[in-house]
Amino acid sequence: MQVPERDEVFRNHGVLQPVLRVILAQFLFLVVVSALTFPLLRWVVATHPGAPLRDVWDLLDLIGPAGLVVAAWLQLVAALGIAAVLTRRLDCQSLRALGLWRHAGWQRELGAGLALGALLIAGVFLALVATGLALVEPSRDGWIRPAALGLVLLAPLALSEEIWFRGYVQRNLTQGLGAWPALILTSAFFAVAHFSNPEKSAPGFLNIGLAGMVMGYAYLRSGSLWLPSGLHLTWNFTQSTVLGMPVSGIGLPSILETALKTPHWISGGSFGPEGGLAGTVALGAGLAYLAWRYRGARPPEVAADTPEPAPPAGE
Description:
Layout lengths: L2 H7 L8 H30 L8 H34 L16 H25 L3 E5 L5 H34 L1 H15 L8 H21 L3 H17 L13 E5 L3 H4 L9 H17 L22
Antiparallel strand pairs: 1-2
Helix pairs in contact: 2-3, 2-5, 3-5, 4-8, 4-10, 5-6, 5-7, 5-8, 6-7, 7-8, 7-10
C-alpha cells in the first residue's frame, strides 16, 4: 500500500469523536454477538440439563466442535457487519479502511504473514524439544479431521479479531489519540479480551498484549490487515492443529501431541507457549522482523477532526 493511501486510512472524517465511536462499537458488538449466539446457547442448556455451567468455557465444552465452528463464524459475521456499517456511517470512510482490499502488494503481505506466523511458532517448538521442555508423539486423531477443524475454526476467529481490534478499534484510536498511544491501548484491550481464557497467568496476559503489539505494528505500518491476519492464523493453526500445543489455554484436536514440561515460566505449560518466556522471545523476534521489513516507514499522518456530512461515494 502506498503511503498516501495508508495515511487516508488513519485520517479522521467521522461524525463523532473517535474514542466515542470505539465505545459505541464495542457496545454494539457485545449486543449483536449475544443476540446471534443466544439460540445456540439456549439449545445447549436445554439438551444438557444438570450440566455444570460455571463459566463460558463450560458452555463451549458442551457445544462440541460443530458448535464452536458455528460460534466462530457468527463472531466473524458480527465483527465484519458492525465494522462495515460503522466505518461507512460514523467514520465516513470507504470500506477499504477496514484493511482487506486488494491494494498493490497485498499478496506479498499475506504471504509474509502466513510464513512468519508458522516460522515463529515452529522455532519455539524446536527450541522446546531440543531443551527437553516439550515431549512429542503422534496423535490418534490422524491429520484430516484436525486440519479441517482447525482451518474452519481458526480462520474466522483470526479474521474477526483482526477486523475488530486492528481494522476498527486501532484505526479509530489512531485517528483520535495518535499512532503509538493507539497501538498500546489496543494491545492492552486485546489482552483484556482474552483474560477469561482457561489456565491464564500473568506471563500469558503480557504475551497476549505483546502479540497485539506485533499485529498492531504491522497494521500501523502497512495500513493493511493482510499480514497481521496471516500471521494470526498460522501462529494459532501451527501451534494447535499441527503441533498439538495449547493456544492461550485452549486445546484442539491435532496432528501431533506435545506436552510442555516444567519450568512453565519458560515453556508456558498448560496455557501454551504464550504463557512463558519462549513465547516472549518468539514475539520479540517477530516484532524485530517487522521493524526491519517496514524500516524507513514513518508513522501515519493523522489530521485533525474534519467531520463530513455524509460518507464518500463509491465502494
